[in-house]
Amino acid sequence: MLASKVTPSYAALGAILTSLMAYSINWWAVIPVAAMVGAMNFDIIFTKYAPWAILLWLILCFVVNGRKGTTLAEKLGFDPLDVVDALQKGARNVLTVAVACGMAGMIVGTVTLTGLGLKFATGLASLAGNNIYLLMFFTMISSIVLGMGVPTTANYLITSTICAPALIGLLTTMNGLDSSTMAIIMSAHLFVFYFGIVADITPPVALAAMAGSAIAKGEPFKTGVTATRIAIGAFIVPYIFVLNPSMLLIDTTFFAVVQNVGTALLGMYSLSGGLAGFVQDHCTWYERIIFIAAGLGMIIPGTMTDIAGLAVVGLVIAVQLMRVKNRRPAGV
Fold first, then answer.
1. 282, β-bridge pairs
2. What rounded mean pLDDT belongs to the chain?
3. How far lies 262's CA from each of 74, 143, 247, 279, 298, in Å?
4. CB distance 181 to 201 below 8 Å
5. Are 121 and 165 in contact (CB under 8 A)?
6. pTM assigned to the model
């Protein structure tokens, strides 16, 4: 909703306001941003409100800091020239992003004009046999491969153009709809983008892991494998977006969001503990299997799976706590 009301020419005003708020590190600096977000919920156009929000922030600066000094910087609480300097640095830093977007635009144009994107989406759907789980798996692999070594912005442009249409098409067909809903489009785009970013810690490329191994003077490939193992829970999150779109806060209720977010967090905790081999105590091999299965049950949308997963995880954690207590020396 917010993105639809932000135009490129005035988005910088919102960025400046947010930067100034962070610069001041004061609770009252939240007021203009909160007012701006609240105004958007009442359909007030962002481009008209952003300049007034900045003006409100400046007034608050004078009210709070007006008596602290004699110079303009002291009365404002920040040096106005810092804003100019930040804009200059931002303009220089955006050049790398602009080049990446330009190259990604060429790829997107080629994919669109040649029909490669449509053929790729059709090929994935045909290979998966219209099975949503197989399609998500194949789409995950494709997004990881396409996202290897690609900057973030270009990553999204490429994966959303080539991989997302297959998911969107099958989800629309499965729900018996004539056209895609916002929940379907958002979940598919976040799915492919998420895995495109995860490529930074996934071997064989794993740029982020390779950079970390160079700093730590470790073995590059082993670092990438370890990073993937530690972050294995992150590979589940995109599946939640597709299977349970209410996690995206679209077409849902407050209580549904609380239930889904709570059980998903507990499920990720259980899954991570099972994979790591430690929760309240070192896990036996069968406890690890139980934690992983129960975690997946809580992640999968459904009240019965949530209740069963919570009960099982609670029971195993209680057993581990008793084991730790019995092992503790008397009087400690």
1. 278
2. 78
3. 45, 28, 10, 18, 9
4. no
5. yes
6. 0.63
